[in-house]
Amino acid sequence: MLFLAVTLGFFVENQREHYVENQREEKYIQSFYEDLTADENDLQSNINFLRHQMSQADTLQKLLFNVDIKQPANGIYMYLRGITRSSGGRLNPNDRTIVQLRNAGGMRLINKSVSDSMVDYYRSADIIQFLTEDGLNNRRLLRERYMPLLNARDFIKVLDTTNSIVNVRENLYLRKADPDIINECLIEIDRIRTLNLVLATRIQLLKEKAGRIKNFIKKEYDLK
User: Fold this and answer.
1) pTM for this one?
2) What does the pLDDT look like over 200-211, one tens digit per residue?
């Protein structure tokens, strides 16, 4: 009887631990699913930002190829400010769940296919973040290049009190139109446009990957 009681107690405790671990696993999976959903929205915002800057780069290149110091340069002022903005385009994936899993040693609780997908997803995000730093550096270089071309008073005017870029009514003019400086700017602009294309493509693929993982999780864990 004593042996039976000990065996039964062990079985009940084992079942209880199994139940608790299943509950923890489901909470982690639900949390990861929510992270991916939030990421999908953020990733699309990043794609939109990068594509908008690519459009600005195309227009800016045309303006600089045909620059005339005697002609109004409102567009050049606006697009130079727009293409060098770094407030958007940063990739910050929601990693609260995988951080918790790693810190708590909880990866063992997760279905291997899902845990492998997690690792692959964040590895892809890390590569994009690395490339994003290159993009930020390109923008910094362009800011350094174009400064001699612009009048400070006019440069300030194209930004309103809400930090939005605006086309002012008065005509704005370049301070100089040095062909060497313009050539350097054109090279940096093309580097920004090209890298933005690469980033937008990679982020789109990451967004699609997030969708596939979500669909797999829904089927595997019967999420509602």
Assistant:
1) 0.84
2) 999 999 999 999
